[in-house]
Amino acid sequence: MIADAVLDSAPDPADARRRAERFAEAARAAGRDPGALPDDAARVVGLACARAPYLATLMIRDPDRLWRVCEEGFLHREKPVDVLTAQVREAARGAASPDELAAALRRVRGDEMVRLGVRELELGLDTEVGRELSRLAGACFDAAIAFHEAALRRRYGAPRHDGDAHGVASMVVIGMGKLGGEELNFSSDVDVIYVYSSDAGAAGPLSLHEYFAKLAAAVTASISEVTSDDIVFRVDLRLRPEGSQGAIANSHAQLERYYETFGRPWERQAWLKARPCAGDLALGAEIMETMRPFVFPRHTAPTVVDEVKDLNRRIKRELVAPRGGGFDVKNGVGGIREIEFFVQALQLIHARNPGLRARGTLATLDQLLFAGLVKDDEHLVLWRAYRWLRHVEHLLQLESGRQTQRVPADVGPRTLVAKRLGYRDVAGFDADLARHTHAVARIFATLDTAPASAAEPDNDVAALLAGQLAPDAEHALLARLGFRDPTSSAAELSRARRRPDSPLGGAAGSLARLGPALVAELAAAADPDQALRYVVDLAARRAAAWSVWRLLDESRPLLRLLVSILGASEYLAKSLIDRPELIDLLIAVGSTPPSRTRAELETDCDNRLLVARVADPDDEELAWSALAEFKNGQVLRVALADFAGRLAPLEVCAELTRVAEVCLDRALALVEAGMRERHGVARTADGARSTMAVLALGKLGGGELGYAADLDVVFVFGGDGVSDGARPIDNVEYWTRAAQRLMHGLHARTPRGKLYDVDTRLRPSGSKGLLVSSLAAWRRYHENEAQAWEHQALTKLRAVVGDPEVGRAAARIAIDSVWGRAPDPARVATAVADMRDRIERELGKPGDLKTGKGGVVDVEFAAQCVALAFGHAHPELRAPATVDVLAHGARLGVIAPSDAALLADGYRFLRLVEHRLRIVHDRAVHRLPDDPVELEKLARRCGFPDGASLSARAARWRDDIRAAFTRVIARAGSRASP
Question: 666 and 783, same structural domain?
């Protein structure tokens, strides 16, 4: 069943073996063979018995739980919220009584505890586990509301609003605390507030208040009562208005009146994490809008920090320490709560900044970094401490299933905890515990201290800036400040001192004052040497230097943010150094929406082109330069929002795609204007105007552009003929020249940089064919000559700019070519698999996250196989976006929902790493760095505690993606032709 080596190497071998034997007995009693466990199942049981006794207890209580967890396919990845919600809903569907509902919810909860416990043990996924547990809580509340409201309606009738026979009152569950922040642990209480829509109405003989009070009480009991099947979550209602003395449920109006009149500072702090999590979410959105002025007032009291610290002291004072003592990783000095309160205090102080309104602790910490309110080293210390302490907290709870955050004081139990966490002995664990908590306590204590800029500069730093230190002393000081390569950094400082307009030496006035602050921020950067190198490069930009340094001297948060970016992102650093005027964009980071609509982008672009035309109407290069300035500014905006965690990976792709489409549209307009000036208007044989459309394929067609992607396009025009100008040319030549000039303009380097590389190899006959095609030629080719791989490419075709009529006509021809006849799914699957195999052999280097095994291409080809094989019968599958095809395929039953979800999630992960590789390292590569230092930097920006965790996750995703790809191809190949 379980290898002896696994049990013998457990922290407590005798206990592990005893639990394994008990599981084997329970499995046999349930009709299962414990001696023939699949590898995954054996690993789960081994982990539970060795490191998480509570999980072993859950499986001994219900042995079938092991098989349910292992067979559903979510041991190695996050379960999509819709899948989890459907599972809870299905479990509750057959319940005929409150007891049956309670049993069903507890069964699902037990399964999820085992699944998530294994994920935590293997990968330390505290943030993902917290998010999934929070989603489980929301789904259970929803199921309980649906069950009990149906029962109440049968007994009393629907809750109706006065004067509206069709208006039904509703209730929402507002998640507070860790539930609101999606940070639940394995034994968390769930803090909730029940709010219903109105008191004006009735449910039969009951007032609406009576009705919803009954509903809230019944839901609470279903979730929190202890039964023979355990508990779902303990429900804590003390954060509701008037606390334990208040009504169990409040109307929207009552809630608003209470907080307007009686709301206290600690309640405002509590609402920072509030989130509608179950019930009527539309009502929840209204309530959040109502509460916004209370939570984020226009004016902040100067006593905010004192109030937060006082609450922290009061909590510590009121805690009752258990016998035996020990350290509380949540409430102890330097524990989880001090990290949370530090973050919340800064949110409250800067309440007017809408960019600081995330609910989760780590998400808010990222926002604070990108508002320049914490230093990069402070961010790293708190980020790592939070992840480590949450992992310890989870392991403590998986040991017994009890609600505890306390590390035992006695050496024996403490050593057991240390070994279950993977430490060889208790000394290593104690050292890490002391390191993290002391660092957190030190930062927490700085909440109400004066800014460092007010102090006198350090004498050694002043001597360093003035070049007064001997080389050995200079190198020693740089090393003490955290520079990894003191020799190179000393050379950079020497280069800076040669410039009189640099704050790092030789400067006078405000620049001299800025120097020590700049050194302090450089020392706190993720990579001080890199940050210094780029600061010196910035100082060399004479035209921008004085204005930039003056701006930074006036805003220390901006200085902190700039240095943090220079030390963490080569891509952003180079962008800002090349175009220092874009540093102004940093002022708006976090305080403006991260997305732009197509209309907003067009307006911005047109304004820049207008300025260029006014400056010199005849200077075409000036217009192209303005277009490049627009593009580079927008890409930098997206990258900053991405780096700050304000855009999800596919949202980044969508933003970059919209920017590219606007650039293509305005670039084509510039080219067509030039063509009309030289050759007149292109005309068809009957004198009508001939026009051209640009068709997008590949990542542009799918709306999935990355930072360094080429634009895959095809040019199609509306008909043969001759232009009507003084120098007429036939339409093929006319539109060929237009396409060539468009490609040249996009590729040429202007004073403001380059726009895009354009790839036209997907046109008819590839690089051997004409650059442009008439609609007639486009039709002939795709009716008679197009090959299978071209049909695959056409699944992502989308008309993006140019004449929409021509674009629609070309798209219809492509649709007829690809989906006009019913395909043989087996032949489609074979062709896609062969093409994938060829790409992997020729391009897929080991570890390549794009073309290698389990890379991005696996996901894309799986979606394209589904689209080609079944798009004839199901037009929904003709969507160009990869994740859309997967979602439609799951809904239609042509791809297993679990495989669709796995591939979509894997795609998001791979695109996230791809984006971060570009941002952090500015490299057009698709593999993780070999250099451990570079890998650590990338891991941190991808949300992983270390490089090993990122590498392990990437390897797991690639294995899972390849397995899912293989299943999708096999399933398609086994289907008969329609």
Answer: yes
Measured over the CA atoms of residue 728, residue 729, residue 734 and residue 740, the dihedral's sign is negative
The token pair that represents 308 in the structure block: 């937060």
**151 CB-near residues (< 8 Å, 6+ apart):** 218
Are the C-beta atoms of residues 140 and 104 closer than 8 Å to each other? no
- Given a cut of 70, whether residue 452 has pLDDT beyond it is no
Residue 370 lies in a domain: yes
Nearest in space to 279 (alpha carbons), one of 329, 346, 220: 220
- Strand-pairing partners, residue 861, are none
User: CATH no. for residue 886?
Assistant: 1.20.120.330
What is the secondary structure of 199-254 as a DSSP string? SSEEETTEEHHHHHHHHHHHHHHHHH--BTTB-S-EEE-TTSTTGGGS-SEEEHHH
Q: Are 733 and 692 in contact (CB under 8 A)?
A: no
Confidence of residue 323 (pLDDT cuts 50, 70, 90): low
The answer to the question of residue 24 being in a domain is: no
Q: What CATH number does residue 509 fall under?
A: 1.20.120
Looking at per-residue pLDDT, the higher value among 553 and 301 belongs to 553
Total structural domains within the chain: 5
CA–CA distance, 544 with 550 (Å, rounded to integer):
10
Helix, strand, or coil (residue 514): helix
Judgement on whether residues 616 and 652 belong to the same structural domain of the protein: yes
The per-residue pLDDT for range 521-548, each reduced to its tens digit, is 999 998 999 999 999 888 887 655 667 8
Give the pLDDT confidence of 743-791 residue by residue, as tens digits.
Answer: 999 998 888 778 999 999 999 988 888 999 999 999 999 998 888 889 9
Each residue's pLDDT tens digit, 78-103: 888 988 999 999 999 989 999 999 99
Listing DSSP states for 565-582 in one string gives HHHH-HHHHHHHHH-GGG
Q: In sequence order, what E strands does 671-794 have?
A: 692-696, 711-717, 758-759, 772-774
pLDDT of 456 = 46
Q: Is residue 45 part of a domain?
A: no
Predicted TM-score (pTM) of the model is 0.88
Q: Structural domain of residue 929, as residue ranges?
A: 826-973
Report d(CA 562, CA 554) in Å as an integer. Answer: 13
For residues 603 and 680, membership in a common domain is answered with yes
Based on the fold, state whether residues 388 and 515 are members of the same structural domain.
Answer: no
Q: How confident is the model at residue 453 (pLDDT cuts 50, 70, 90)?
A: very low
**Is the same domain home to 463 and 443?**
no
CATH number at residue 612: 3.30.460.10
Helix, strand, coil abundance in the chain, percent, nearest 5: 65, 5, 30
Asked whether residue 473 is assigned to any structural domain, the reply reads yes
Hey, which bits of 51-163 come out as E strands? Answer: 160-161
Are residues 94 and 132 part of one domain? yes
Instruction: State whether 343 and 421 are in the same domain.
Output: yes
